[in-house]
Please model this.
Amino acid sequence: MHAHLGDRLVVESPSTGVVRRDGEIIGLHHEDGTPPYDVRWSDTDDVTLVFPGPDAHVQHLETEADDTPSGTGTVGDDTAASRTSANPGDIGRRVAEERRRRGLSREETARRARISPQYLAYLEEQPSDPSTATLFALAGALDTTAGSLRGGGVDRPPGQGHALLHPRLSDLGQEECRRLLSTHGVGRVAVTAPDGRPAVVPVNYEVVDDAIVFRTRPGSVPAAAAGDEVAFEVDHVDEAMSQGWSVLAVGPATTVTEPDAVRDLARRAHTEPWAGGTRDTWVSIRPTRLTGKRITPADPPARR
Model:
């Protein structure tokens, strides 16, 4: 029997095959994933050291990268390596952010939540779906809610959540603005539309040689940016954490017409425009003014 952190241990009746008990494996004692395991039982929320008997089997956590048939993967094999290369999931990201925000180490957080530090590291670094019991235990350890750790309300327009009790609004320096802007993705460009009315439209953008560039169609609203000074804004809002940042770039926009430059932009593009269709007109914005703001929790007052 071999298991990974996050797998489920299922105990069945030998005669009927009915599940008598199940729990989440939150601690391993051997690198090869063999028993015993630390298991958080779903019916009691208790954590116990378990030496599985013949009536127990491991139900492996399914991931997109895991092509190994159930029951054959071991810690340290190609399956485990493929998991290591994945990006952290939203739950793990929020757990890590809340833990750092409160100045807690992984060891202290794991102790409070009654899970192993290794399992907490797994949650923070890998796509995962912890059990409800583990999620509530982590929420209690971090003095927050399970809903916040799950990112409750992410489908709502940003800004409807609760504001921070002690927010800090700070200006971003030029280098930080450039760093945040260069992550590329979706931003908003403010233009005067062909009908003469002001408009703000989202576009997929790149940053190439300090210029903001995006693809569009001739005659479209974004294409109307060319020839004018425009404003371009990009931001990130974490509703569950009630914090975020925004960067505003202002500068002249031009259409890129030189064939070699157009080919180079197409080659260096990270993504295709989400709107689809043929969009082969490149618009370049050269920022002459770059400003930004960030909202974060203020440092807690010093104890006297």
